[in-house]
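Hi there,

I know you've been waiting on this one. I reran it after we fixed the sequence typo, so this is the corrected version. Both the input and the resulting structure follow.
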Amino acid sequence: NLGFWQQSEQTTADGLKLLDQIPNSEFLRVRLMAHSPWYLIWTGQYMKAKQEIEQGLRFIERVSDVTSVPFFLNSIGLVLGLQKCYTESYDLLLDANARFDQLGGTNTFGKAMAFGFWGTILRRQGNFADAEIYLERSLSLKQGAKMMGGVPELRNWLGELSEVRAKREEPPARMELLSLAEQHYRYALDLRWTGRKHYECVALTGLTR
């Protein structure tokens, strides 16, 4: 999840080889492949990511791990949204959010993830006003709970949103939005200490634009 995608792929392959030698290792495979599918998602391997997450979801439902279910629904919702399957994506994110509410107040991280995924999918769909609301809600939750490791992607997504909105405006509104985008990218870079290399690259690319 730190953004070293080639290293992630090799480490995963090594892990699967090791698990092939261990009997009754389904739980460990789920932990390896489905709990952290980010290198698959952020390298565009959506179908493979969805298959792995759904396989993990079937396992945790079978063992009645109710606390993990909404996290898996979050991830599948993100994958579907990135593939422009918006209705299915929103249904899963709604379901995940409702389940986090049922689990009580200890699931701030999960709700923040759901709002962030929702916001970036709305942005891709062109619903900029609602996208900003959800992204800001996610940012507020993560910053309030000191989950700084999850903030760089939100700053980048807000920066990208400001850039897209700027293209639809005339000066001086355009310049104000571009200035706001720059602020978000610089905030993301200020958090390079979190080690999220992927998002550091995204922020640098945004500033270059």
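Quick highlight: The chain has a mean pLDDT of 89.

Best,
R. S.
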